[in-house]
């Protein structure tokens, strides 16, 4: 599986091939996959006695997901600030170890209060994952390469859901047959311990090119020189610049991203907590619900990899793929929710395709590093976007209410409606990029710059922490001067 540490990458025009050492066996792709398994450990535990053992009643189970995302959202800006002030690799690794510890602590919880406290801390420490790894990728890879690399991160969500889903099945089967520690406690100890171990390995190996010990000084300079042409910066430490925050608040793509993250995460929040229960509602036992959920994860994993690869070689397919996946998921929600009179295997087959809704998110998230330049602007953009991501997940965890079990018709219908609205937002966002790119290209053409001059200026922009708007405005200004 592709990682942030690759031996070879396609060279930029005029640059040399960078001979990086082989990647360590434990890479950020693996860490990213684990965080999703940790995040959704409650979904597996709920069918193995968690609710009964901790005496949860009413909406308390759904609230545990809300507490996680509340902390995840509140932590975005302060943790984004810390990620900018401290070495990125070290900060990420410490947080990985701490959130792994929180997952292990879940196994010791016996009541609602302790579960709520631990889930809150878990959300706080996991808040660094998506923005931190996005910046880490931007510090190693060219813009044209980032969607595929980040797509591999996101594919790990579903890949590890398969791997750990099978592991969870056998752990639960053993607990059911032989007794001992409750299956849901074993699941959290297993997932948390694995995460802590990976965090320690990440501390030794993960970082930006300037941080890692396994590159020579010459190789560090070469790695940095390679990504300067991105004109979006890497993971370097920079002072916080409030003027970049103000620019971000005036940027239309910022608001498309906020709305997208909120709307796309309403179904995400619901499925994260209730997907296993929905499979169980089709007539499966607790153990069968785990097994029969794996084809859905496999479909999601393959779709993400194929989509990311397609965008790598045909960038204009990003938004069409995102929209197509939205419509597939809308049909899946409506068919499963409204088709209670149909054969359960037909509903199971169609609902297994619901996982493709996440592909749209994974097509859009790389834009946070591909199209946004300026270290502070990038951090603020990502933090607020992920804050809206958390709000969407909180709302989603509350629309699947206990009284609607086992069909959850209202929740399924609400997800379909929200995704239809989001398809409109995606279409408008796509249109904005098309018109903006045409105007920017026209400005560069009218400015009289050669391709060599243009490449030189983008490198300067990347070195001097300029924002994407400053680069674009500079082209327009040169165009105006040429006309005069």
UniProtKB/TrEMBL annotation:
Q: Name one GO molecular function term.
A: transmembrane transporter activity
- UniProt GO cellular component terms: membrane
Entry's transmembrane regions: 91-115, 121-142, 154-175, 187-214, 321-342, 348-368, 380-401, 407-430
* Keyword annotations: Membrane, Transmembrane, Transmembrane helix, Transport
What SUPFAM superfamilies has UniProt attached to this entry? MFS general substrate transporter
Compartments where found: Membrane
InterPro entries named in the record: MFS, MFS_trans_sf
For this protein, the record's Pfam families field holds:
MFS_1
Q: How does it sit in the membrane?
A: Multi-pass membrane protein
Protein name per Swiss-Prot or TrEMBL: Major facilitator superfamily (MFS) profile domain-containing protein
Natural source organism: Vanrija humicola
